[in-house]
């Protein structure tokens, strides 16, 4: 006879893999679409021009700040142990909210609603908005590091290779977060390491860390 947990376990694992696939695919697609090449030292006029000449940036933002964020939140609702599930969902929700804030900022820049150092439609400076987006990204990286750590700490039995991937991801995210919070270009480059590690971690999480929600025991037959 089939165990009461068999069906829920299979369903949860399948859903987790779907969210994982959407998350990784959204990020890879976003990277292929590309984003404006902007540095912290660029002027507001340069930033405004970069976004004006890159109409695909909104597609990129919708993929990495929209679809990927929703998928990661979906993963967070299925990851971790029962005792830490609220913390896991909280970290996932934080990354989703911060990502949507970034998406809104990217939309302002893409539609030219911010100023280029002169007069803007809504009186906001492109350079300031871009800097704010990066700072929000830094805060989001802290939330991501917390998510990875919470999922890891919630496991009663930890496999060495999964622990190493999680640890490396946390360290890379913290270094990258420091760069984005301070707008330090050298430290921001850590994102080139943090992002691949995060995508690898997502696959590892789907493979190793998915935990089914316990199903109620069947009542004994009378």
Automatic annotation (TrEMBL):
The keyword Oxidoreductase does not apply. The chain crosses the membrane at residues 16-36, 56-79, 91-114, 129-152, 159-181, 187-207. Keywords: Membrane, Transmembrane, Transmembrane helix. The keyword Transmembrane helix applies. This is DUF4386 family protein. It comes from Pseudoclavibacter terrae.
């Amino acid at each position: 006879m089939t165990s009461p947990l068999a069906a829920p376990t299979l369903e949860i694992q399948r859903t987790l893999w779907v969210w994982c696939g959407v998350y990784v695919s959204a990020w890879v697609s976003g990277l292929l679409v590309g984003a404006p090449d902007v540095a912290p030292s660029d002027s507001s006029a340069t930033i405004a021009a970069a976004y004006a000449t890159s109409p695909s940036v909104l597609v990129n933002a919708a993929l990495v700040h929209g679809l990927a964020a929703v998928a990661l939140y979906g993963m967070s609702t299925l990851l971790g142990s029962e005792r830490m599930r609220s913390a896991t969902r909280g970290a996932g929700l934080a990354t989703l909210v911060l990502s949507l804030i970034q998406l809104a900022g990217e939309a302002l820049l893409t539609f030219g609603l911010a100023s280029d150092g002169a007069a803007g439609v809504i009186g906001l400076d492109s350079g300031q908005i871009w800097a704010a987006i990066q700072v929000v990204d830094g805060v989001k990286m802290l939330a991501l590091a917390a998510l990875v750590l919470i999922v890891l700490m919630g496991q009663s039995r930890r496999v060495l290779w999964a622990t190493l991937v999680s640890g490396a991801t946390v360290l890379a995210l913290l270094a990258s977060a420091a760069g984005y919070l301070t707008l330090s270009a050298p430290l921001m480059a850590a994102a080139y390491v943090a992002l691949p590690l995060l995508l690898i971690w997502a696959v590892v999480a789907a493979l190793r860390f998915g935990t089914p929600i316990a199903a109620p025991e069947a009542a004994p037959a009378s």
